[in-house]
Structure formats: structure tokens, C-alpha cells
Amino acid sequence: MTALKYRSTNTAFRKRLHQEVDHYFNSTNVPRTGDSALKLQAILIMSWWLGSYTLLNANINYATNTVSFTSFIIASLSLIAGVGHGALHGTFGSNSVIGEVSKYIGTLLGFSSQWWIFKHNKAHHTYTQVYGSDSDITQGSLARLSSYQPMQKHFKYQHIYIWFIYPLLHLYMISAADLELFFNSSINGVKSKRSSLKVKSWWLVQKVMALTFLIIIPSLTFGIINTLIGFLIGSLIFSLILSISLQTNHCVGKPVEAKVDHENKLILEDWAVNQLKNGVVVSEKNKALTFILGGLNLHSAHHLFPNISQTHYANLTKIIDKIANEMHIPQKKYPSMLSAVKGHVEFLKYYGEEVA
Fold first, then answer.
1. Tens digits of per-residue pLDDT, 145-190?
2. How many whole angstroms separate alpha carbon 197 and alpha carbon 103?
3. What is the pLDDT of residues 328-338, one digit of tens each?
4. How many CB atoms neighbour CB 170 within 10 A?
5. How far apart are CA 278 and CA 331, in angstroms?
6. Half-sphere exposure of 145 (CA within 13 A, CB side)
7. How far apart are CA 285 and CA 45, in angstroms?
8. Among the listed residues 142, 146, 144, 147, the one whose alpha carbon sits nearest the alpha carbon of residue 164
9. Up-side HSE of residue 35: CA atoms within 13 Å toward CB?
10. CA-to-CA distance for 225 and 231, rounded, in angstroms?
11. Mind listing the UniProt keywords for this protein, alphabetically (predicted)?
């Protein structure tokens, strides 16, 4: 990871924002983390997920299997986005049994908690949309998501071919994404603080757990061939939905990436303003979508306050709107997920052309 620093990290916008947010919590007397609403949401989502999985493996009939299979895919998205993601940010607070379970339950779907903390919490949240430091937009020859990335001819068509790559996300994450963690005890060159033996041991445990949950148990009911076919179909659908959910968090519309002085290793923007400009708000009045995605459709609030419970994101978004409007800081907002997807296509087309 490139050791860049922001030009400023404590501007008038950030100070005013924290004052307003502190006032909100002091006046409402609600906890910032580990609130009962968050715990209830986690219990409901995990119950929905495990219930769908159990019903599917009961193999009652074709209609029930179809409904439970579909339900399991959507619940899996909610489990990762609405439960595991927040837990790994510490939103359940300390000494929370539900929080600890939430951190690692995604392991059953093949997601590495160690890998996620390295890649997402540290790199992405610090260097949001900064090429070379945020691996989410540093995609090599796969796609061009930054003006700092060298142009290649095929990027002209990335808004078309990318839709055939997104369905492979889950397969990549469970098979290759965290291999560096196993072999080098590091992610993006950053070494783990844990010993190499512990890292490798936990890596193996996670893979065995995922294999058992996703393949071995279902194969006892459906047979290995049907299980593998079902797993592949489910993985492709899940990956496409997850990719859309993730990409519409940042990569939509005309880009507003921060300029970087690589010679002096300086990001020419304030940290908080960069989070605001690059965090997208999608369908903020859609409570069902907000529940399923754990508030990640209100992404500005999440990036500015990643350790605060997602149950507060709707109210925090109102506070952010008020201050951003007063200070004339632009935001990206889309009224629906469909409009955000269209914005993502626009984003891909923009970087698919040569940009100075």
C-alpha cells in the first residue's frame, strides 16, 4: 500500500459535522454502538438466512426449493452487507456475543474476516477512491476506474464486458482473493500482527467451514453433482447482486476522485470531504433496501462514521445533508437502485475513454 497522507484531516466541515452528530446522540440518549435495534436486526437476518438454508436442505418439493433457494441468496447478501460488514467495523461494541458471531458467520459463505479487515477497513476506508492505495479501484487489466490508471484499448468496452465478470466475484473471493494472506501473512503488502502459524491455521479452518456448509452438507441431500450445479448458479447470482451493491456505493456518475501529488505522497483533499464526495446515497427512503443492505445504500454516513451502528445512518444522512448544503459541498444521490446502476455504466464509460 502506498504511504500517502491527506492534505488535511480536521477541516471546518469535519468539526461541524462531529458537533452536530455529538448533539444528536446527546439529545436522543441512544448508544452509538451495540443498540438493541442493531442486535434485533442481526438476529432477524441470521434467522432468515439459516431458516432459508434449512428449508432448502429439507428438499420438500420443487416449489419450496425454488423459494428457499432464492431466499437464501438474498439473505446471504443481507448477512454479508447488513450483519458481518458492520460487525467487522465494531458497530456492535465490545463484549457482544451477537457481535462476535456476526463477525465470523460470513465465514460459512467463504468470506475471510482477516482479509476483509485488511482490504476494506484499513485500505478502502482510509484511501477511498485513491488509485494505488484503494484496491477496490486498482484492478490492473481488468477494468479502469481511475484517471491515474494507464489506458488500455479494451477498457473502451468495459461497460459491457464487466457484467460477465461481476458474477465471478464470490468464486474469486473464496478461492484466490486471500491467498496472499496464507502464503505471506499479508494483504497488499501489509503484514498481519498475528503470527504466521495463527494466520495459516485460521485460514484453513475458514476454508473447511465454507466447504462443509456450502458443499458437503447439501450434497447429503441433493448429491454432489446437483449440489455443485446449485452452488455455481447461486454463486453467480449472489455475486452479480453483491457487485452491483458494492459498485453503486462509489463508482457512479461523473467521477470526483481526489488529486494526488505522488512525488510528495500527498492526497490534495481533506479526508472527510473525500468521503462525502465519493460516498453515494441510493434510494434513501427505501426502508426495505436499507434493511437488506445494512444501510450501505446510505454510504456517505457509513464512510464518515464507520464505527457507528447502521441503525443511525438515516438520521446521520439528514445531518450530513444539512451541513453539506450549507458549505456547498457536492454529493451524489440517486433515487433508485436502477438509476444508480445507470450511473455506474456512465462511470465505466467515462474511464473507458482516454481522460487527461
1. 998 899 999 999 999 999 999 999 999 988 887 777 677 665 555 5
2. 21
3. 999 999 999 99
4. 26
5. 8
6. 24
7. 20
8. 142
9. 16
10. 10
11. Membrane, Transmembrane, Transmembrane helix
Residue 305, exposed/middle/buried by CB under 10 A (0-12, 13-18, 19+)? buried
| Whole-number Cα distances in Å, 351 to 21, 140, 157, 162, 346 | 36, 13, 10, 13, 9
CB 96 within 8 A of CB 38: no
CB of 65 closer than 8 Å to CB of 339 = no
How many residues can be counted in the chain? 356
Instruction: Give the distance, in angstroms, between the CA of residue 333 and the centroid of all CA atoms in the same chain.
Output: 18
Q: Tell me which amino acid residue 115 is.
A: W
Q: Residue 281 forms beta bridges with which residues?
A: 298, 333
Which tens digits make up the pLDDT trace of 258-312?
888 888 888 888 899 999 999 999 999 999 999 999 999 999 999 999 999 999 9
Residue 211 one-letter amino acid: L
Residue 161 to residue 92: CA distance in whole angstroms: 39
CA distance 41 to 77: 14
User: Tell me, what amino acid is at 16?
Assistant: R
C-alpha cell at 42: 442481526
N- to C-terminal Cα separation, the chain? 24
Strands 332-334 and 280-282, how do they pair? parallel
Residue pair 295/245 in contact (Cβ under 8 Å)? The answer is no
Torsion of CA 108, 113, 116, 118, to 10 degrees: -160
Residues 218 and 230 sit within 8 Å (Cβ to Cβ)? yes
Q: Which three cell numbers stand for residue 313?
A: 445512518
All three cell numbers of 91: 458497530
Pairing state of beta strands 260-261 and 266-270? antiparallel
Sequence-separated contacts (24+) of 259-262 with Cβ below 8 Å:
260/4, 260/130, 260/131, 260/132, 260/148, 262/2
CA-CA-CA-CA torsion for 17, 20, 22, 24, nearest 10 degrees? -130
CA-to-CA distance for 33 and 37, rounded, in angstroms?
Answer: 10
pTM of the predicted model, to two decimals?
A: 0.91
332-334 vs 260-261, strand pairing mode? unpaired
Distance from chain centroid for Cα 154: 27
